[in-house]
Design a protein that fits this description.
Layout (H helix, E strand, L loop, with lengths): L13 H12 L3 E4 L3 E2 L8 E4 L5 E5 L9 E6 L5 E5 L4 E4 L6 E2 L4 E8 L2 E6 L7 E3 L3 E7 L2 E8 L3 E7 L1 E8 L8 E2 H4 L10 E8 L3 E4 L19 E3 L3 E3 L81 E2 L1 H4 L5 E2 L49 E2 L8 E7 L1
Length: about 400
């Protein structure tokens, strides 16, 4: 119920006393279905927001006094932002415009007529942290987030214990090397995998960024990409190296988070292994009649099969903007296979080499596979390209 006012010497009735006692245990509730500005009569009550789309609760100036409180709960599917009205200072551990998703709530506590603090209620909420190479604020599906970008290994400094969303991309595998006229081009390196998870952190944590796998320089396979890790909490292993050399009969078997493409060694066919969005996809096949190799598998799709003299294209990567917002950004794709004409890398993966041409190296922080070495006309090696290093995003609500 609304706050009651009594005069000096007034004798309270049993009904008035019972009403006061009831309010201590069962606060009055008002339900709102549209944007709402708190009113003086709301002090000591609960405002329940029931909106299917994003909305706001505005904290007004010169309406409440120091010590007044109002509970705000959200029961609808729309994200509710608690915002300061003109002339009001609103503080919170979750930023100056904290948000409530469905079934969340908190209390607005006034320290003066023009200043208030919002305290979120419930279980473990999101924590706060600093560190990395960049800090970016975004709004995704109506929720305000800050994410920290780690391009290289470093320390996440936790300033408030709580939950953190993590998005990890491992290093891409290196491209295989081509050697002499019978080995043909080496396969493109597999793209590094992606992992999205939510973890609880209460202390400073090392974020390890996986290095890209080295491209092969002999009749061999490229190196696997390095793992990207949130120490002790989450991690994703790197992409498989591209296959090169006749002793390697099945490049797909090296694929863990995007397999290396297979060189042309006189065999064909086979089913994709590790086909999932966590572990990546298999590398593509070469064939006995071709002068090229399969493309490396990506985090989101299998590598392409060689097309006659053209190496297979790298497999597809995965979308990042659902986590970090902004424009479309696909990464962790496979490298193209080598051949007389190199196959195209995809979504951060590098292009394969052509005749006597080395495979291209994938760019840093893409998790892309390195390109396979081209198809030599002599007994010399044609090197594969290096895979791209990984990246980590650490996100929390504000």
């Amino acid at each position: 119920m609304a706050k009651q006012t009594f005069s000096s010497g007034q004798v309270l009735t049993a009904t008035q006393v019972n009403d006061l006692q009831t309010n201590d245990f069962n606060w009055s509730v008002s339900t709102q279905t549209a944007n709402y500005t708190l009113q003086a009569a709301d002090k000591g009550t609960r405002e329940v927001m029931n909106m299917a789309s994003a909305g706001t609760v505005t904290v007004p100036n010169s309406t409440f006094n120091a010590g007044d409180i109002v509970w705000v709960h959200s029961i609808g599917s729309g994200v509710i932002s608690v915002v300061a009205g003109a002339g009001v200072t609103l503080n919170s551990a979750f930023g100056t415009a904290p948000t409530l998703t469905q079934w969340e709530g908190g209390v607005v506590y006034f320290t003066s007529a023009s200043a208030a603090i919002f305290f979120r209620s419930g279980g473990s909420g999101y924590g706060l942290a600093t560190g990395g190479d960049a800090s970016t604020d975004v709004t995704i599906s109506g929720v305000n987030y800050r994410y920290l970008t780690f391009n290289s290994t470093g320390t996440l400094t936790v300033t408030k214990a709580g939950l953190f969303d993590v998005y990890l991309t491992a290093g891409g595998g290196g491209g295989g090397a081509g050697q002499d006229t019978t080995t043909r081009g080496g396969g493109g390196g597999g793209g590094g995998g992606n992992l999205t998870s939510t973890v609880y952190l209460d202390a400073n944590t090392t974020i390890t960024i996986g290095a890209g796998g080295a491209g092969a320089t002999t009749n061999a396979s490229g190196a696997l990409g390095g793992a990207t890790l949130v120490a002790g909490k989450a991690g994703i292993i790197g992409g498989g190296g591209g296959i090169g050399g006749q002793s390697e009969t099945n490049g797909r078997e090296r694929g863990i988070t995007g397999g290396g493409g297979r060189a042309s060694v006189g065999t064909t066919g086979g089913t994709s292994l590790y086909a999932s969005t966590i572990y990546g996809y298999s590398g593509g096949d070469g064939s006995a009649a071709s002068t090229g190799s399969g493309g490396g598998g990506g985090a989101g799709g299998a590598g392409g099969t060689v097309a006659s003299t053209t190496g297979g294209a790298g497999g597809a990567g995965l979308q990042r903007n659902t986590f970090i917002g902004g424009a479309s950004l696909l990464r962790a794709g496979g490298g193209g296979g080598g051949g007389t004409t190199g196959g195209a890398g995809t979504d951060g993966g590098a292009n394969g080499g052509g005749t006597t041409t080395v495979g291209s190296a994938a760019s840093a922080n893409t998790g892309g596979g390195g390109g396979g070495g081209g198809n030599p006309n002599s007994g010399s090696n044609v090197n594969g390209g290096n895979g791209g290093s990984g990246i980590a995003y650490i996100r929390f609500r504000i």
